[in-house]
Amino acid sequence: MRTRLAVLMTASLLFACAGGGGSASGGGAGGSMGASGGGTSSGGGSGTSGGGSASSGGGAGTTGGGSGSSGGGIASGGGSASGGGGAVDAGRSYQAVCADIQQTICQNLGACGQLPGNLLAQCLAEDRCSGTQARFVDAGSLRFDAAKGEACLAALKRAGCGTEAGAHECTGVEGVPAGKLGAPCYFSECVEGYCPYGGAAGQCRACTAYTALGQPCTTFNSCDPATSYCPLQQPSDGGVKRCEPMGTAGTPCTSSLTCLSGICSTYAKLDGGVSRCGALALGAACAVPSDCGKSAYCRGLRVDVNYQPLALGTCTARIALGAACADEQLDEGCTQEAASCLDGTCQLPPSYTRDAGATCDSTDHCKAGSFCDLAPIYLDDGGAAVRTGTCAPLRGFDGGCPGYSGCNAGLTCVVGLSSCKPVPVEDGGCGFDQGPCPSGLICSDYLSPGTLTCQRERATGQTCETNQLPCHTGACVANTCQPPQSNGTRCLQNKECVSGRCDPVGDGGFECQAACL
């Protein structure tokens, strides 16, 4: 796998984000193929007890994000842009496949004991397949590949309990960009021009022609990336920002966004030099994987826990599927993004198909009832090691477990203890040394200061706090949940509005406004 650190962070559910609860100032676009948000982070709760809850699924924006239960899309990063054409490739509709994916995720979580009480029924009943993302498919701004959707569904049905929802078959399942000029967009749906997000752009956006070289620009994506970029900073003379030419190979740089190659190599900085545009040559020494470019990897690189190089690597051409490879600490060099070096060759096995005892890089390699028991890549003595793993049976009560996976149904891996313990219950303790809350509950100390407990998102009329104990729907006003508001009412998050849209107004505030689509 190209980025292997991400494997450590996947939890029992990663299929809720970019969704309806996003903040007005940059949150999610609306609901689609999501589930109910996943278990909370093991350190959720107030700022003093660490981070917000992972179950809040919706895009965080700058004001804390909304609830996963209000609908999140699969956040697998889209996929490569493709040409125009129909919104759905041959096969079942987006809504039909989405509904089956949603049901399967809920059933998997239920089988794992991650949806106690009526949370399973709530998960199965909620509709996350008719939100903004679905409307983008209907409008032709996204193309949904039904075959990819069916492959994702099949992988999730193989997943069973204890596995991570990280199947490579689900990457890009939410649709690939297809928006022509004038088509509705939210973030990256355009194949012609750009989507003008940021600042006071609001959420009702349309694919817009790029700004010409030398002309004033307002957002970093408004200039044609094939030729120019919009500076992040205002000019020192106080003038306006303008589209500037992309840096060619060898040009000093501070960001890959300013380089025609898309690479700002940092290797020279090790000797007191400056970063420059362009990838390092094959055979060159490397200290950062990206410095070698997209067609090469930094073979042999070893870094410490602070990502400082312990041993430099060598830029080496990537390896085709089926060709020989070797285990690495970070990037094994396989050409295909989701492929891994397994048994000495680059492979892309179907998710959840490898038997107990087989080598693995991620739990989504292993069959239901097992997980990938990975060796550490950072050693206690400060050294580094290549990552190797073996599919192992799920552990029982008090069994040792790594990270956030590896336990039988009804148990969870408590990070602070590195052992399997019962899944926390509603009103029960949670956190670093007690475990994450089940999907649909939030780890918060708002109702009991200093003591983290699992709580439901609040219903209308109940006590609430926007970040620590949010409302299921509507707004938290004066610490009480209010029903969703009509257009023209002040707001902070999309879910506070009946329309699902909270956007900027002329005085710098935000109001509920009519839905975009």
Overview of this structure, please?
The chain has 517 residues and is of the alpha+beta class. 10% of the residues lie in helices and 15% in strands. It contains 5 helices and 25 strands. The strands form 12 sheets. A 3-stranded antiparallel sheet has the order 9-13-10, with no helix packed on it. Strand 20 and strand 21 form a beta hairpin. Helix 2 (94-111) runs parallel beside helix 5 (146-159). The protein is globular. Mean pLDDT is 81; it is low at 3-32 and 34-86.
Q: How many beta-strand runs?
A: 25
Number of helices: 5
- Give the oligomer, counting copies of the same chain as homo and different chains as hetero: single chain
Summing up helix and strand content along with how strands pair, one would put the structural category as alpha+beta
Task: Report, as a whole number of angstroms, the end-to-end distance.
Answer: 38 Å
What layout of secondary structure does this protein have?
Elements: H1 5-9, H2 94-111, H3 119-125, H4 132-139, E1 142-143, H5 146-159, E2 176-177, E3 184-185, E4 205-206, E5 228-229, E6 244-245, E7 264-265, E8 276-277, E9 285-286, E10 296-299, E11 302-303, E12 309-311, E13 313-317, E14 340-342, E15 345-347, E16 370-374, E17 389-393, E18 411-414, E19 419-422, E20 441-444, E21 453-456, E22 475-477, E23 480-482, E24 502-504, E25 510-512
Antiparallel strand pairs: 1-2, 3-4, 5-6, 7-8, 9-13, 10-13, 11-12, 14-15, 16-17, 18-19, 20-21, 22-23, 24-25
Summarize the model shown.
By secondary structure, the chain is α+β, with helices and mostly antiparallel strands. It has five helices and 25 strands.
